[in-house]
Amino acid sequence: MPDHSPYDSLVVETRAQSSFRVARQVFVDDGILAAERERIFERCWIYLGHESELPRKGDFVSRRVAGREVIFTRDTKGALNALLNACPHRGARVCRERQGNAKSFQCFYHGWIFGLDGACRDIPGGESYPAGFKESAEAQLPTVPRFGVYRGFAFVCFDKGAISLEDYLGNAKEYLDLVADQSEAGMVIVGGTQEYSIQANWKLLCENSYDGYHAATNHATYLDYLKDRGDNLVPIALTGTARDLGNGHAVVEYRAPWGRPVAQWIPAWGEDGKRELDDIYQRLVARFGEAKAERMTHTNRNLVIFPNLVVNDIMAITIRTFYPVSPGNMVVNAWALAPADETEARRRDRLFNFLEFLGPGGFATPDDIEALEQCQHGYANNKEAGWNNLSKGMGRDVPAYDDEAQMRAYWTEWQRRMGGRMGEGAAA
Amino acid sequence: MSTTLSRLDVEDFLFLEADLLDEWRLPEWLALFTPDGRYYVPSTDVAPHAAPTDNLFYVADDHYRLEQRVKRLMKRTAHAEFPHSKTRHTISNVRIRAVQGTVLEVSSAFITYRSNHGRTDVYVGTGYYELLQGEQGLRIQEKRAVLASEGLRSQSRLSIIL
Fold this sequence. Notes:
The complex is a heterodimer.
Chain A: E1 11-14, E2 19-23, H1 30-41, E3 46-50, E4 59-65, E5 68-74, E6 80-84, E7 99-101, E8 104-106, E9 113-115, E10 120-122, E11 146-150, E12 153-157, H2 165-169, H3 172-180, E13 187-189, E14 194-198, H4 202-209, H5 215-218, H6 220-228, E15 239-246, E16 249-255, H7 270-288, H8 290-298, E17 300-305, E18 309-313, E19 317-326, E20 329-339, H9 344-357, H10 365-378, E21 387-389, H11 405-417
Antiparallel strand pairs in A: 1-2, 2-21, 3-12, 4-5, 4-7, 5-6, 8-9, 9-10, 11-12, 13-20, 14-20, 15-16, 16-17, 17-18, 18-19, 19-20
Helix pairs in contact in A: 7-8
Chain B: H1 7-22, H2 26-30, E1 33-42, E2 57-61, H3 63-73, E3 86-100, E4 103-116, E5 119-134, E6 137-147
Parallel strand pairs in B: 1-6
Antiparallel strand pairs in B: 1-2, 3-4, 4-5, 5-6
C-alpha cells in the first residue's frame, strides 16, 4: 500500500478532544464518487430485493442496482437468481418490464431466448454458429458474481472474492432477525414502491436515517401532529442507545410514544386493535420468550447496513435503498414490509402510520429531504467551511440514540473502504 | 345523467381549486371538501384505482389527516415548504365521466409547476374527482391525483398538494 492515498484524512478523529469530523469534500467531489463506485459499490454486498416480491415460479422484477441493470427472478425450479440484464449477443436489455411473470426472456433485438435462470434456450439462425455454441458460456445471460439471501433479504455483490453475505452482515443479522421473526407466516413487501430522488449526496441519507438528534426541530410539525390528536400516542419518552455493529453497520434502538403494528397499542386503534395486538404479543412470547418479544414489539430500530440499506422498524417498517447519480443527486427506492398474515385492519393502520411520517408525501420525510438538500447547498462553501462535525456523545460509555456514534461507525468504515487513513489531527 | 351542471361549471370549480392552492389559501381549499373528503396520490407502480388500505401510496389522507396536512403546510416549521414554493396548477382535458344521483365522476389532466431554491419541478397526471352536488355547490368527496410519471424521480418530494 502506498504511503499516501488521495483519500487520507477525509475522516478525522481526535479522541483527546472528543472530536470527529468529516470533510465536506466527500459530498461534492466527482473523483470521490468514482472511487466510491469502485471501492464501495463494487465491493460490498448491496441489497437487491425481498424474496416476497417473487412469490411464484416465473416471477421477476428488473431494477437498477448500484449502477447495474439486474433482473431478480424465481425460475421454473423455484430458485432465486440475480441476472445481469444485458443480452450476451449484442448487449440490449432482454427484460424491459419492471415486473411480471414469464416463462422466458426474449431479446427483442435479434430474438435470443433465455430461461429465468439465464440459460440460453434458443438462438434464431443457430445453425450459423459452431456446434455447441448455444450451450457455451458466451451464449448465457450472465449472473451477478455473487448472490445471497438472508431471512428473505436478497443481496448481490460484484466482487467475486468478497466474504460471504452472512459474514458481511455479521452483527446486523440479529436486527434483521428481529424484523423477519415478527410473523410465523413470513414478512412481505406491500404493493407499491415509493420512488423518488434527493438533490443531495447519497451518504447524507444514511446519516439521516438513524439520526435521533434532529427530530425536535426538523420534525416539529410531525410531533405537533402526534400531540394534536391525543389518541395517537402512549406516554412513553424517547430513550435509547446506539450500537456499532461492525463492518460499517450500526443501529439505534429506542422506545417511542407512537403506535407500532407489532405491537405497541395506541388508543386510536380501539379495543379490537388492542385484543389483536395482545394476541400478536402473546404469540411472540410463546416463540421467543418475554424479553425478546418485549424488545421486538416495544422498541424501535433504525438500522443502516453499510453502505446503502436502511431497515427502519418504527411506526411501520420501511426498507429503503439509494444510489448516487452524481455527487449531489441520489435516487431512492422505499418499500413497506409487513407480516404476510396481517389482518386487514392492522394492514390499514400500518400503512396509515407509514404515510403520516414516511415517504416524499409524508409529514416528516419531506423535511428530511429539505434538510439534506440544504446541506448540499451549504457544501458549495466547502473550500472555506470544510468540515462536518459528528462528535455528539463521544465522551459517553454508552452512546444515546440521539448521539452520533452510529454515524461515526459508518464513516470509520467508509474511510477504511476508500483506502485512506483516518486523520488524527487536532480540530482546526 | 341527472345533473344540470355542465362541464363549464365543473371547470369553474376546478379552476377555483387550482387558484386556492397556488395562492396558498389552503384552509379555504380544505373547505372545498365534504366532511368525509379524501385525498390520494398512489405510487406509480400500482393500478391507478388501487386501494390505499393494502398498497403503499405517496399520500392517502382521510379528512382528519387532510386537515392536519393543511395545518402543517401553513406553519413556518413545515421546512419543506418554507419559504412557500411558487406553484401553478394547470388544469385541462376536463371530462364529466359519469353522474350518479348527486355525485359527478370527473377527470382532468394536470400539469403543476413548483419552484423553490433555484429549481422548478413539474408534476403531470390525471386528477380523478368524486364531486358532490349540494346546496352550497360542488364539494370534493374524493380527489385522486394519479401521476403520469415513473415515480417522483425528477421531482424528489411531494411537499405541495397536487
